Amino acid sequence: MRGCRSDSRRVGKANRAHHRPPTWAWRKERAFAHATLALALAAIAAGAVGAWAQSPMPQIWDVMPGTPVGDLPDEAFVDPACGTNGGPPGLPIGSFENFAKCRAESSGLREVWFRYDDELEYIARAARDADAVARSNAMVVLGQPVILSLLIDRAGLAQGYRIITDPHADEELRMYAYTVAIAFKARFGTDGWACDQLAPAEGETPITGIFVKERCRKVADGQEIVVESRYYYKPGQALLDPNTGLPTVNQFESSARMQTVAIDALRK
Questions:
Q1: CA gap 227, 233 in Å, rounded
Q2: In sequence order, what E strands does the chain have?
Q3: What dihedral do alpha carbons 201, 143, 146, 213 form, nearest 10°?
Q4: Residue 64 and residue 62: Cα distance in Å, rounded?
Q5: How far apart are CA 217 and CA 222, in angstroms?
Q6: Residue-level pLDDT at 11
Q7: How far apart are CA 85 and CA 166, in angstroms?
Q8: What is the mean pLDDT of each run of 10 residues along the chain (268 residues)?
Q9: In the chain, where are the structural domains located?
């Protein structure tokens, strides 16, 4: 229903991309860089934090540290499964109260993936109301599809959460995914962040002269908040295929992630 496309559509898209002239490729690469500042400023001007707070349905950031799994809004947070730290959902567990079926991370916390209930979006799609579909699709942040999960301690208390941009989003959308980190940080205020610019690993190269590999940390309201952003070519990736000279399809890293964890939970 949401975000599903047949293999034939993906192949078709790839074929169309490979018939574009090389000049299109350079325009695409310039667009990667030129659109970044405009997108970031638009996000802030749109009042990202205020928009989140006004959402009528329960959202992941409404879950306070120490919330028992039995108190989670299971009609709004559906299809819980073991999380895979940004990957697809793992073992379905049926209920948040079955969190112990998921393997504990090194912190001792267990990651439980979930999605928001999409009944309203389904109704809007059935009515072919594009505006209502956009309003009802909660699995996005600033237009970027995201992966959501809660971090639960051994006592069954939700002690934090993760929001990670979806690595399977379409190229035209995903190229801007790393800018969502601006909104992640804005939610907790612009001051007090300690940010490290990480060096490229072997084979990682800039996109049109821009390389982003940043990790920011802040402690606020008894929580540790970590926000990361990535924007570069991974080893073996490039704008043009070295064998054919044709533009590659969706071969780049662009992502943002946020994790919050209660400080007391980290000390256990």
A1: 20
A2: 67-68, 77-82, 110-116, 140-141, 144-152, 157-165, 194-197, 212-220, 223-232, 253-262
A3: 20
A4: 6
A5: 13
A6: 39
A7: 11
A8: 41 40 44 47 43 63 95 93 96 97 96 83 52 55 90 97 94 94 93 96 95 97 96 92 84 96 84
A9: 7-267
